[in-house]
Predict the 3D structure of the following.
Amino acid sequence: MNLFDLGIQLLLLIPSMGFLLSLLIPGRNEKLLSGMAFGTTVSNLILFVIFSVVWIFKGTPTVNIEEISLYKNNDYEFLIDFLFDEITAVYLLVGTLITFLITAYSKLYLHREEGYKRFFNTIHFFYLGYMITVLAGNFETLFIGWEIIGLSSFLLISFYRDRYLPVRNSIKVFSVYRISDIGILLAMWASHHLWHENIAFVKLSDYGFVDEHLTGHSGIGIFISMMILLAAAAKSAQLPFSSWLPRAMEGPTPSSAIFYGSLSVHFGVFLLLRTFPFWEHQWGVRILIGLLGLATALVAGSISRVQSTIKTQIAYDSIAQIGIIFIEVALGLEKLALFHFAGNAFLRTYQLLISPSVVTYLIREQFYNFRPETGTRKALLRKFDIAFYFLSIKEWNLDTTVNKFVFKPLKRAGKQLKFINYKVLLFVMIPLYLLGASWYFISDEIPDLLHLYFPYLFSFIGMLLILKSFSERKSPSLAWLLILFNHYWIALAVSFNEYYSLDQSLMYLSGISVAGFVGFICLRRLEKLEPKFVDLSQNYGHVFEYPRLSLVFLLSCMGLMGFPITLSFIGEDLLFSHIHEDQFFLALFASVGFVLGGISVVRIYARLFLGPHIKNYHETAIKSG
């Protein structure tokens, strides 16, 4: 083991140990909790400085380390791969410094807060995800960190879990994050067929290698680039997904600073920088990225100028700057984009941490020094100003547009499936699934035409189940089982493709099945304890009376989403690797099922356990506060 291997392992080991140890510290011991966070970030910062000095002294080489092969067969390998280069160095420098500053700031800022332990646990969790994502050397490793960041975002936004708006907005943000997951999943799927391996990012720098594979496959190359752009745009709040970032400011000020002002919101830029050698010569994609950044900068800049709250103004200012960084990346100005990222991250962190003082100053300035606008303007220009002002006040209807064209059609489709209930699930879907599973064992005797269309049929059935779950408002148990059986139908659909063996299905369904069973038991337990207050029509806040049940159910939710705590995460990537290049609809049904299933799972958890408590002897926050 060389020095670079050891350094990267320690950079990941320190936040991992910090997170695990923070879980064991009692919630009342604020000094030890904050000390653990502070010690973790300081240790990583010192280690990074030492590592960087050695790396610079050695001539700043690109370091690629293939660490662990978690699963391997004849045509597939799930490899944990790490990469350290200039992009990694800048992101690690900014990330470790800002996390260090935020933990020091939060020590006193959150003093005596009820969720003090939860906050520092989640910060540790986020920091671990950040380190994995930044050091990732391939899509599979990056997706592990990507998922951790998404879940920790949800937990931090809903930190004030007794309030309506933080919980509601946390689901909104998580929903947009799941859209970015579609991009990553489909990019990974198409990459398997383009490269016929789990491609390492370091190989993308070899122009001859990339050009050789794209020759004759320009269509799949453009598709991968577009999916990368979709993931980057959703993650970095670019059009049309810009409205989620201000909603994320419902969390504590330190979490707003570390997540949505500085680090998490720049991961779309990181993804574009990391994959730039792949789409560098696809000029149509580069022009599209530049135009998207330009449009976002103009729209977000106009919105920020009319905001009445300082945090929302900072959020839109940050979105506008990231739009400009998108333009810089599209132009190939990598070093300028990295410098711009660092400057924007530090500036937004500073602005958010001092935002209470800024509000006080602005109120005082307006009270003493306000001067009304003087002079007249031409009527046409005045009308233009007014129209532009109202568009900006309405945030260009971005939130409404995404809901209207993405989520509402899915909900309407799900509401048309009223016939899917417990009886249909038990007496139609399960027998039909068993029949389909029996056909798998005699697949050699099935006519070729049926063999061709079975994957589409079974994945479509899974899609119907997930749409019904997505729109279900009455029975949490039914919604949960529908999500579980969607995974079973998807696994069955892919199993009819060649080279996909039964043991691979069992790997994928192992964690899903355990999590589904435990989660269902939790729901049935809650229904017995609170028979009048268990549905999905509103938030009930049961976490206050059943915290342990809430924790177990949250872990079950993570397992059912295929979160990287079970073998199902590997099985998910393995499943996609066996979807053929021409089976676009099968890939689409599977990826949409995963994404909508994740949103539905989080919605069930939030509706049942988060929000103002339904019983009037609990303190209730104002709904609009």
Residues 3-361 form one domain. The longest helix spans residues 164-195. The mean pLDDT is 87.
